[in-house]
């Protein structure tokens, strides 16, 4: 059986796939295997993936929830609040060496926060969105999320706007600066780069 084409996926499929990739990275980090350099690279990839994912949700998914769900504003604000907590933790984690005991403390807080967030989204928000929003719109949102993730920041910016239109205006600029910093410092921000380093 062949896997579905991208056009067959809706935004819930795309975001759920992101959740699985992030969980796999968490499990690898929690195993405490590998060199400190490898753990740093894994943490950098987790941070970049989470930031891109969160920015895309804040740009497109939460506004759709606000519009489509009777309590959409409350749901969106709750999810954004969880993103803010995770982003502050990621900002701290970014500056801690993997050999420092704080690294695993911060990682533990981040994994706990994100796992709770994923449970909220997959158990409540995503099924409700699928019930309330036309499939065509959900597929269109998948494309918008994928595009947003390409231009999104790769580093946490806890003070950055997290609501449209400000986040849509400022996010790509922050993303460009982050990608330039990543290139200059050799920071790993994707699974493909991580696999390349492992060769």
TrEMBL record:
Pfam families: Hemerythrin. It comes from the Bacteria. Residues 155-164 have a biased composition (Pro residues). Residues 11-129 form the Hemerythrin-like domain. Residues 146-177 are annotated as: Disordered. PANTHER family: HHE DOMAIN PROTEIN (AFU_ORTHOLOGUE AFUA_4G00730). This is Hemerythrin domain-containing protein. It comes from Micromonospora globbae.
């Amino acid at each position: 059986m062949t896997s579905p084409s991208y056009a067959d996926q809706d935004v819930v499929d795309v975001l759920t796939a992101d959740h699985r990739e992030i969980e796999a990275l968490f499990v690898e980090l929690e195993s405490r295997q590998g060199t400190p350099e490898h753990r740093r690279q894994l943490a950098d990839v987790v941070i970049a993936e989470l930031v891109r994912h969160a920015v895309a949700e804040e740009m497109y998914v939460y506004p759709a929830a606000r519009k489509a769900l009777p309590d959409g504003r409350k749901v969106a604000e709750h999810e954004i609040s969880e993103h803010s907590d995770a982003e502050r933790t990621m900002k701290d984690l970014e500056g801690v060496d993997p050999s420092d005991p704080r690294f695993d403390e911060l990682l533990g807080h981040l994994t706990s926060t994100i796992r709770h967030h994923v449970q909220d989204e997959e158990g409540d928000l995503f099924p409700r969105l699928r019930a309330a929003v036309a499939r065509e719109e959900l597929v269109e949102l998948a494309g918008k999320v994928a595009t947003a993730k390409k231009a999104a920041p790769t580093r946490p910016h806890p003070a950055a706007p997290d609501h449209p239109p400000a986040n849509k205006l400022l996010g790509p600029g922050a993303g460009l600066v982050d990608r330039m910093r990543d290139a200059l410092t050799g920071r790993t921000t994707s699974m493909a780069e991580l696999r390349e380093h492992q060769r």
